[in-house]
Amino acid sequence: MKRPPANSELFDAMEPCVMALFGKMNAETLLDAAQIMSVVDEKGRYLHWNDILNRTQHADKAKAKWSLIKFARRVVLKPIPRLNKALGNIALFTLLPSMQKTCSLIDRHCTDAGLQDLINNIGIPGYYLHDYIDAESIASSQLEGASTTRAVARQMLAEKRSGRTESEKMILGNQRLMSLAYESRYDTMSMELFLQFHEEATRGIDDAKYQPGEVRTTNDVWVEGRDGNVVHTPPGAEILPAKLDQFIAWLNYEHEEGLSPNTYLHPVIKACMLHFCIGYLHPFRDGNGRVARALCYWFLFKQGYEAFLYISISQLLKEAPVQYGEAYLKTETDNLDVTYFVEYQCQILERAVKGIIEHAKSVAANLREFDNWVFASGIRKKMPDIQQKILNIAVMSPGENFTIKGFADRAGISESAARLHMEKLADAGILLKSGGGGSKPIFYSPRTSFSKIKTALIDLYK
Fold this sequence. Notes:
Layout: H1 14-22, H2 27-36, H3 49-56, H4 59-76, E1 78-79, H5 84-87, E2 92-93, H6 97-109, H7 112-122, H8 135-143, H9 150-159, H10 166-183, H11 191-202, H12 207-210, E3 223-224, E4 230-232, H13 240-252, H14 267-281, H15 288-302, H16 314-317, H17 321-333, H18 339-377, H19 379-382, H20 385-396, H21 404-411, H22 415-427, E5 431-435, E6 442-446, H23 450-460
Antiparallel strand pairs: 1-2, 3-4, 5-6
């Protein structure tokens, strides 16, 4: 990650920028320069010096473009209300149209009322979303290096067994962490609760390495860019407790109810900022990323965005870990301009919310198609209502592993009724059985092929 030129290296007037870019000064080149002199580019992106340099491939022209962009940004960048003491530096930010779009999307769909409207409009049972309640616990662990697959992790959590490997212990820790984030959503943040987040995330994995629930006491931590250069050194251990107290005070401050309009921050924007702050302060020896993401969830839950129980941010972050890291680096190399990090996190949040909406629509379409076939074939008249509920779950979650209790909870039926009908469907080859023996539960996995399910139903009810 290339550091931007210092202010003293920038052009301080428009004319030399125009000359460097176009070689002449006239009305046409001034207009072209004015189009470059914008906070974002033509695609709405908040570009860093590194981006400009890579796209321009000419040092003087890159510096001229960067100068024009910085001219535009100087007008709109403002200090983040009340955060400077916690970070020990003046953190800057400007609200972009793309961020406003993300905030609007989340406001419309992610509250409890918005989620219910979405479920009703799409036409899927509410229990469908419960399949995703552990998605963040698993993905966050995988982002930190856990090698366990999603299927194995889900089975471990369903069996409620202890972790056998470090990867499995990480997932169990993240499950405890996400439970704490939701259960404490009405609490005021305190140092005790903050440390509990880290303790829940890291307990029992490698206590000597993680030091669960303890603020680091050494200064042998730093952030490197891809070129190996140190781009950020966190606050020293001797001042870290005071910085954390100031951060927690900022976290608890009601930015929506501030005495001045200048203190207002949308909750989604603040959630992204606090995510960055944990990376910047680096309060723990290890596990900072997990705590940062969980605190982001805690704050979103606190603001009433219940839908994030079922939405995984880490699933998308782990698909592009380099971009996630660069979002931090861009902020840290450009005068603590947090706009870079918030812009990237808003992109992730938007994709995550839209992703689950589109997936729910696809599942609802499959469910309607299957239900129409069941009625048209005449099988629905012969099929008990309980089997219809079980089959709906099978259609919505092909290939997933379920216990009898899991099916019963989703279908709203007793475990004895679920066992009776699930065994009948397993005998027909519609559900596949695995596991069992000793204290292990039996798992039932719906076939992934709708055509095979249909064929088996025809044979069962012919």
